[in-house]
Amino acid sequence: MSDQPQKESHGPLTGMRVLELGHFVAAPFGARLLADLGAEVIKVEAPGGDPVRQWGRQVEGAGAPWTSMHQRNKRSIVLNLKDPRAVDIVLKLVSTCDAVIENFRPGQLAKMGLGREAMEKARPGIVIARISGYGQDGLYRDRAAFGVIGEAIGGLRYLTNHPPAITDLPPSRVGISIGDSIAGLYAAFGIVAGLWARDRRQGGDGRGRDVDVALTESVLSMMEGMLPEYGVFGSVREPQGARIATASPSSAYPTRDGKWILIAGNSNPIFARLAGLMGKPELATDPRFMGNAARVANVEALDALIGDWSAQHDAAALDTLLAEADVPSTIAYTAAEIAADPQFRARGMVQEVEDPAFGKVLHAGVVPRVTDDPGTIRWAGPAAGAHTDDILSSCGFEPDTIAGLRSEGVVA
């Protein structure tokens, strides 16, 4: 790992140094996961900053609050990579790092002079995680893609809908850039795996690795039994809406105050407790509902009974009743319920972070939680280029040289 002196630990990856050549979501998300667990991450941004700084609702002069969390625990330098001098600066940074994470199109960094050979020369044994739409090779290598494309070709978009029999609307988006985030997660995992292979205690080989992560493949890897079922039975898994196709009852049910509550009563003992709470204990011995297979076969009738009952209660009161009966359930949380949830607060999963640009900002906490040496939120996402001078100074650049590079548009 990096030989930079470490005064204190910020998590299990303290001492790792990572260069992020990323933009939008995938690579920055993966880098943030590493930073949250203690890695030092240097984010290289183009002039004007990462475009995601302008995504979503914005605060005038500060940009989108999401960047407070998306770019947290990182240091930012702005470089114009179209200038060869900026490329040389990147290679100097590479020489101090353990790993690089990037999400340019395949081959684009090599055209700039930042391919494997150049990086390996700067830092022998460098681990490079490359995130792209379809991977670094194959027939689709050069096709344009964003997370939503990965979600579609990986099978998720088709399933994110109500059954075709009850709607002709197009498949819904999940609501976040989940394909990008999954790819970033795999890239972070791949970097740790590559560094372990290079440096492991029992005789690492010292060799660098390229970690090849495709958005499409990242989504496909999450699709449970969809592909095995098709291979064995020739059956295509169809959208199920709020239900689980293989278990019942397990769906979202209406409440009196216009909310939705998810109830998962899909084992016999849990279903018996649910039936008792509903005032219909006889449902547990009704032949239509005895055993999961019977309940799945009669799901329409069962869900109608549960929905009629749930609609007589307000969501919060019903959630309490179900919890006291030990029936797995929850209100479908909005941001407001998440922010107020005592469990999230108690575990530090919702934290108030002071941000110079936005004031107090709510952040999601650090995942995973590593006991004894957990990661921390050390600072909110910095402004683009906030650390340009410090980073260049650490690479040996004198103040006059930095000023000249800035005046010529190489750095900002």
Automatic annotation (TrEMBL):
Q: Is Transferase found in the keyword set?
A: yes
GO molecular function term, any single one:
formyl-CoA transferase activity
* Enzyme Commission number, as recorded: 2.8.3.16
| Keywords associated with the record | Transferase
- What's the protein here called? Formyl-CoA transferase
